[in-house]
Amino acid sequence: xxxxxxxxxxxxxxxxxxxxxxxxxxEHQGYECFIAYGQISKGYANGFKIGSRxxxxxxxxxxxxxxxQGYFSKNGTRKLVEFIKSYNPDVIHLHNLHGNYxxxxxxFTFLSTFNGKVVLTLHDCWAFTGKxxxxxxxxCYKWQTLCNNCPQLAxxxxxxxxxxxxxxxxDKKRWFRSIKNLTIQPVSKWLExxxxxxxxxxxxxxxxxxxxDHTIFKPSVEVDLVKYNLKPNKFTLLFVSAGWYPxxxxxxxxxxxxxQLSDEYQLLVVGENKYKSKLPSNCIAIDYINGKEELxxxxxxxxxxxxxxxxxxxxxxxxxxxxxxxxxxxxxxxxCGEIVNSKCxxxxxxxxxxxxxxxxxxxxxxxxxxxxxxxxKYVEDFFDMKTNxxxxxxxxxx
Length: 398
Description:
The structure is a single chain. By secondary structure, this protein is α/β, with parallel strands linked by helices. Helices cover about 40% and strands about 20% of the residues. Helix 1 (about 15-30) packs across helix 14 (about 385-395) and helix 3 runs parallel beside helix 4 (about 105-110). The two termini are about 10 Å apart.
């Protein structure tokens, strides 16, 4: 069996790591794999770069000005199609197609003639909307009928002037329906329910959770306290995000929570942050953690992980924390609530800071150790890498 995956990145970030995890298991089982990527590649040799850096920049500019992401990069996508024809895969596995690196008309014209199996992993909601990757915070459900007059024009993927959400929605509907043998793979039960309300509902749908490598994400006691300016005797609340900036839900809720907690607590804020000077004195900001092993040490040091996202289709960082034996507190919003049960943390009302504080104090009283074994076992049972990757490989074989 030969598999070709297409994603914005390879071996980098959450979706890029998922691609390489699948690729390595395929190779381990004696199969062949290539990853075609648009932006960044790290750690996997069998890669095909889609388009040039100049094409990426032009696509990004065109997307911002015209509001039509996925309508540029013609030359790079033609070369991708030629590569696919020469590689002749049995399975084409689509991941994130957004990211200013593909011409979707050219790609889907080819996919409509492809006789092998096509799998689409939904890492977000972009595939079945006219523009956005998330919509719950603005409570916009036009995608169930027809997107138009987008309320998130300035949000990812941002458009400075024009609204083509109706055109893009109708194009996506036509493109995806043109594929003969398409299986949709949502990464959570919440996302599976959403897909069944969309124009993808008549396809085969097979939910498989994302995963973590619990041989890496495991309890550790080796964190460098001096390096991160951590106080060993303070109760530590951990927050992880790709970026922190004023005006976002995560930032606003973090600031409100920090303002209501005394210096008895230290709030460890991990992720790119240009606004460190605005954080309260009980917060410690770390822009970047070098490597999964080092991140596992941070998870392990924390007494509780708090996830302030309201729009996650899975929440991999939640599972990483649990795998290190650290209980989690999450909002009952999108998929986050299904990732945590009462044996490994708390699910609170969306943006309810008082419930977060009450949950923190409950964990402080019972101690982290009360949750640790259950948290680790829970990850092993539901989010094991080998088990879940093999579920995806079994989809290829059906």
